[in-house]
Amino acid sequence: MPTYPRAPIVEAVIEVQFADSPLTKRDMERFVKKVDRKYPHNQLMQDYNVGFEFSGGQARGLPGTLRQEWFRCVGQDAADILVIRPTSLVTARTAPYYSWELLFDSFVKDFDVLRKLFGFKRATRIGARYINRIDVPSPKSARVDSRRFINIYPNLPFSDYPVFDGSFSSVEFRDREGTNVIIRAGLADPVLINHTSLLLDIDVFVLEDLPLKVDSVLNLYDKLRDKKNQLFEALITEEGRALFT
């Protein structure tokens, strides 16, 4: 894959989900303490289930119930992020993104801490997700025809139709090698003045036939990286590529 001096990546994520004895809050606290030098800023997060009850045409909120607690940790460089949940570990990097090698090395170190503390846990999902934002110059942030820049877009049964005021596409499939793919793309809220922003979100992951050895699990991420790169190159037009080369 070409190396782009101004890659449009706004967030890159490497994830592993695992089975076998979900981590307790105390377990996660031990993990967060172990990675404190790398991620000195951490925050306990809580997910709640909420509901409503309807009676006599009126809605009444029901008490929320705690569903899950987890930690979000941030590095000295605020672009480095780690998320630890009872059954998953995520290592992420927001812009500026430097390279797969740096991100993957960071993930391997985080994963090694998890393994040393709690032993190897059988992986149930491994994945990599890259969110790209392509900023297209346009006077007064006027809408642009996304078909000029990305090769995925909604289609209408007309030979000629105007530029969409808003559009978004989402596709999911599994390739012949057993890699699952989710692609989301379309117009996003503009971030820069006099620009239109296009989003290209590529999520690749494996769910089945995952190996039981650490090295074999880690080796699968190279396959995911190659798949992600192939998809990105195929989904970007030459006019789109010219915006960040």
What are the defining features of this structure?
245 residues; alpha+beta; 9-stranded antiparallel beta sheet; 22% helix
Secondary structure: elements and pairs:
Blueprint: E1 9-18, H1 25-34, E2 41-55, E3 58-74, E4 80-85, E5 88-94, H2 100-118, E6 123-137, E7 168-174, E8 180-188, E9 195-206, H3 214-235, H4 238-241
Antiparallel strand pairs: 1-5, 1-6, 2-3, 3-4, 4-5, 6-9, 7-8, 8-9
- What percent of residues adopt helix (DSSP H or I)? 10-25%
> Helix and strand string, N-terminal first?
EHEEEEHEEEEHH
Shape: globular
Number of distinct beta strands? 9
From the N-terminal CA to the C-terminal CA, the straight-line distance is 13 Å
Measured on Cα atoms, how large is the radius of gyration? 21 Å
What is the structural class?
alpha+beta
Oligomer: single chain
Q: How many strands, what sense, and barrel or not for the largest sheet?
A: 9 strands, antiparallel
Estimate the mean pLDDT confidence.
92
The main sheet orders its strands as 2-3-4-5-1-6-9-8-7
- Which parts are unreliable, with pLDDT below 50 for 5 consecutive residues or more? none
Summed up, the helix count is: 4
How much β-strand is present in the residues? Answer: 35-45%
